[in-house]
Amino acid sequence: MINLSNTAEEKEAIEWMDKTIEIAKKALCSNAKCGAIIVKNGEVIGEGYNAPPLDGESNRKCSNEYNLPQKFKYDRTCCVHAEQRAIMDALRKNPDKISGSRLYFLRVDDNGNIKKSGKPYCTVCSRLALDAGIKEFVLWHEQGICVYSTDEYNDLSYQYTED
User: 0.70 exceeded by the pTM?
Assistant: First the structure.
């Protein structure tokens, strides 16, 4: 992991994170508003926010009516993750550019303010990013904006445990 605080690259990363905020504000998830953009050579090649499949309310399965057990074995949300949507968007629109790209991810509160990221934990997104050829993940932690190689992000996601 590389912390971009007080580096020349930090200003550019903040600009990309500002764009990611705007995408996150579009999120339709009832639990969290997340956004992701994929950047290559100074161009956004994919973007996504978390929402039920096809942005459809009829596809929302995370409400209490489905009575998911507390120890549900898999992802407890019905939403397609922002990272997944950004990867699909990039593969649809710019399949020749995704290899070697950088994925920026963040979460916002209901007022559109950044919620700092915790440790990498989503193995679904990390595996998809690896398979798509994304080079790096960028998260905004309390200690600053940090860049992870996708390999490192994937390894850390498999090591994650809730404290």
Answer: yes
